[in-house]
Design brief:
It is built from five helices and no strands. It is mainly alpha-helical and 147 residues long. It has one domain (24-120, 129-146). 30% of the residues are buried. Keywords: Signal. It comes from Plakobranchus ocellatus. Residues 23-118 form the Temptin Cys/Cys disulfide domain. This is Temptin.
Length: 147
């Protein structure tokens, strides 16, 4: 029974990890700086598809950043200067807009090393340990790069 559960969980995770399967509100990714470049610390080599959601694939309950974004109504100076995940790095610094000057459509001050504004950079809480995720799903990154 345990083996069957593990196989079912793995197949479900593989389906959910297929790009484009579960995008929820991708337009919100345009409303934050580097919305398509946020590294997902729980899935090495991947970007978070749902930066404002608890699920990295988007949809479902909002995370702390998603709630703050919804309350602010967009990328505001207050949201930019806040540190939603409490890791000591402001949302703006995490998303490449440390001076909080970005507006939609502009290229942010920084476009590399973009970290997740709802996941603690120093101690990420992941449903699947990153090493285990990489062991099972790392091959799909190679597949995507070739396509
Ligand atoms: Ca932070
Ligand atoms: Ca963070």
């Amino acid at each position: 029974m345990l083996y069957l559960s593990a196989v079912l969980l793995t197949c479900t995770a593989m389906l959910l990890d297929t790009p484009g399967v579960a995008d929820a509100f991708p337009s919100n990714r345009d409303r934050i700086p580097n919305g398509y470049r946020v590294a997902d610390p729980c899935r090495p080599g991947r970007t978070a598809q749902g930066v404002g959601h608890k699920s990295p694939y988007g949809g479902g309950p909002l995370n702390v950043f998603g709630n703050a974004f919804a309350a602010a109504g967009g990328w505001t100076s207050a949201l930019c200067n806040a540190d939603s995940d409490g890791d000591g790095v402001s949302n703006g610094a995490e998303l490449g807009d440390p001076s909080c000057t970005w507006t939609q459509g502009q290229t942010p001050d920084r476009t590399t090393d973009i970290t997740h504004p709802a996941i603690n950079n120093n101690n990420p809480s992941c449903p699947i340990p990153p090493w285990l995720w990489k062991l099972f799903f790392g091959w799909t990154i190679i597949f995507e790069q070739q396509s």
